[in-house]
Design brief:
Length: 653
């Protein structure tokens, strides 16, 4: 059942302990799990103490994974005597030192386990104790305690952002380059390139889904044709073996010499004769080497996946179900929990197609969209209608996907008598399952789909964003169009959504372009055209106006006053004011601190560019110090370096 966030359920006190109601997350929904008993008598912990108070104060139902972290500690017998005593002590009798000691003892117990999740287990186990809402004897609350774990924080895995989606070996240049690494000359060009990439990404995903569904329908035709063929020629022993249903007992050399078509006939015959389509454990089949099944399996060595493919004329294989999920997500831009809430009753057939109603995970609000059967792939959303919950989409592949899912559900009902199979059900691939069908964790299935088609890693959440990003960047699009597509209540929510995804990628593209221009401009300014050539850096990135001018108080491209005065052989009147004094102090401080590095880094450049400025700066400083502005100069020099060191300096004199 689904768990309501506002459920009045409570954990139960039993004669021996506390019965904890638990839940687990499954594609956005909270599913109730079997209750777990924390047996105080078995643990040797007194009742009414810290542990019992904390357990009863936790949210109900509590996450199964979080509770299991505490159970791992409690089940690692023998527990330290001090820990059992403190956990059974009443809250008002405990002090701050006791709480820190409990946290330390928890980590002592966890240290016995040789796993990589020690840090996570410690944090989650302590988090349950922090639920106590009663003060300690020193009036402190456990929730306010800080504790540094002795276990190393596990490194975070590489997060594959959708904005970095690219196919390195693609023949399309747009698909080879992530959005954040594109080249552009204007904001308009940047957005246009990003929109083009998003549309090509969507087209690529649709083509891979279509390829999967085409392979499924092709395999179904092959299986049906095979079942109507005559039996292959076999020796007497093999015929008797097949009649008894002992397919593995056929002579290995005979079976291996058979053509793939004949081996497939044997498989199909066994499926029909022993009704393997509703009893997966009835017979063992030799499925390896039948390449006709490979387009519908993620792992060609998996007998479970090969069997699911061999039953394609009965049920949709997992890859095909995943392709249908992706197609419907691309068009509806629904969250995973909304999409997977669909039942047969939520799908209404209309004159032009289908009308679907899903439930949003938060608040159970209904979400609608329409699938039109005959229209082309073009879904224009009116900005003025963005408050409407009805959004019309059109795509033949999405219609095809929905029809396949409905037909699959109907076949499950016919051949297995399962009345209410999930719309996105597929044959179980694991060994431990109570049901012949499972509603797989879709993100895992999508990773298998990406691996099968040599695509970068994606999640259903990433796929959902494609439509929103396209709406934001398309011509005449924008945040209002994205808001209508995502069905957010406010533009602020849509703004945060876009800022956390596509806008980050666009800003990264801005920064990368600026750094490329800065690199090219610096190398050109330093006369290192050889590096520009060796690194294949285009001259288009050179921007002479990007670097700081000689003086920040002058206009770009203007010759400095000192240069003009020198060109005039001293005949020009040179006025020194407050601005020039500021500049002199700043330039003097710069050369004083960097003299050694500048003179050794590039002696040729130092003599040509810096030495004349150093001489002029020192001379001008001496003139100012001998004038009535000496006090101002000293104040500025103290500002740049306090206290001012009057020591021998290569710039003096």
């Amino acid at each position: 059942m689904d768990v309501d966030a506002d459920s009045p359920l409570q954990h139960t006190v039993t004669p021996t302990g506390v019965l904890m109601l638990t839940r687990a997350r499954d594609t956005g929904r909270s599913i109730a799990r079997a209750p777990v008993l924390i047996d105080f008598d078995e643990l040797g912990i007194a009742r009414g103490g810290l542990l019992e108070t904390a357990l009863l104060a936790t949210e109900c139902p509590i996450g199964r994974a979080t509770l299991n972290c505490l159970r791992r500690v409690l089940n690692l017998a023998p527990l330290p005597l001090k820990l059992t005593q403190l956990l059974g002590t009443k809250i008002h009798e405990l002090g701050s030192a006791d709480i820190l000691e409990i946290f330390g003892l928890i980590e002592d117990v966890l240290a016995r386990r040789n796993t990589k999740s020690l840090y996570t287990d410690s944090v989650n186990a302590r988090s349950i104790l922090k639920n106590c809402n009663l003060p300690l004897k020193d009036n402190r609350y456990i929730s306010n305690f800080k504790f540094s774990s002795r276990f190393p924080i596990p490194p975070r895995g590489v997060i594959s952002l959708w904005s970095e989606f690219h196919v390195p070996d693609s023949t399309d240049a747009d698909l080879r380059t992530p959005i954040s690494q594109q080249d552009f000359n204007s904001i308009e060009e940047r957005n246009k390139n990003a929109y083009k990439k998003i549309e090509k990404t969507k087209a690529l995903l649709i083509s891979k889904c279509k390829e999967t569904l085409d392979a499924h329908e092709s395999l179904v035709r092959l299986l049906l044709e095979t079942k109507y063929r005559n039996a292959p020629a076999l020796d007497k022993r093999s015929k008797k073996s097949l009649e008894r249903g002992n397919i593995p007992c056929m002579k290995k050399e005979v079976y291996e010499k058979m053509t793939e078509e004949d081996r497939l006939w044997i498989i199909c015959d066994a499926i029909e004769r022993f009704q393997i389509y509703n009893n997966l454990t009835a017979r063992t089949l030799r499925l390896s080497g039948i390449t006709a099944l490979y387009p519908l399996v993620a792992t060609t060595k998996s007998s479970h996946e090969l069997l699911a493919a061999a039953l394609s004329d009965y049920y949709l294989p997992r890859l095909a179900v995943t392709a249908c999920s992706i197609l419907l997500t691309l068009e509806s831009t629904w969250n995973a929990d909304t999409l997977y809430s669909l039942t047969r009753a939520d799908i209404q057939t209309t004159k032009s197609g289908f009308h679907l109603t899903g439930l949003k995970g938060r608040g159970n609000q209904p979400q609608d969209f329409k699938l039109e059967q005959d229209d082309s792939l073009e879904a224009e959303l009116e900005i003025l209608a963005r408050e409407s919950e009805d959004v019309e989409i059109t795509d033949s592949e999405a219609v095809r996907a929905l029809k396949l899912l409905l037909a699959n559900q109907e076949r499950i009902k016919i051949f297995t008598e399962i009345e209410k199979a999930h719309l996105f059900s597929s044959l179980r691939l694991g060994k431990h399952s109570e049901s012949i069908f499972v509603y797989a964790v879709q993100d895992t299935a999508i990773l298998e789909f990406c691996k099968h088609h040599n695509l970068p890693r994606l999640s259903l959440k990433d796929i959902r964003t494609i439509g929103a990003h396209a709406a934001y960047l398309r011509p005449n699009g924008g945040i209002h169009l994205a808001n209508a597509l995502l069905r957010h209540r406010s533009l602020a929510t849509t703004s945060d959504y876009l800022r956390s995804s596509i806008i980050n990628a666009l800003c990264d593209a801005n920064i990368l372009r600026f750094m490329k221009k800065l690199q090219a401009s610096i190398l050109f300014s330093c006369g290192r055209e050889d590096i520009l050539i060796s690194k294949n850096i285009s001259n288009d990135f050179i921007d002479k106006d990007l670097l700081f001018p000689i003086s920040p108080f002058q206009s770009e491209g203007e010759q400095s006053l000192i240069d003009k005065w020198l060109d005039a052989s001293g005949e020009m009147k040179l006025e020194i004011g407050v601005i020039e004094i500021h500049h002199c102090a700043a330039q003097y401080a710069f050369y004083r601190d960097n003299f050694g590095e500048l003179s050794t880094a590039s002696p040729e450049r130092f003599i040509k560019r810096h030495l004349p400025r150093i001489v002029t700066c020192v001379a001008l400083r001496n003139v100012i110090r001998g004038s009535t502005h000496s006090a101002l100069l000293m104040q500025l020099e103290e500002k740049y370096r306090e206290p001012w060191p009057f020591v021998a300096n290569p710039l003096n004199g």
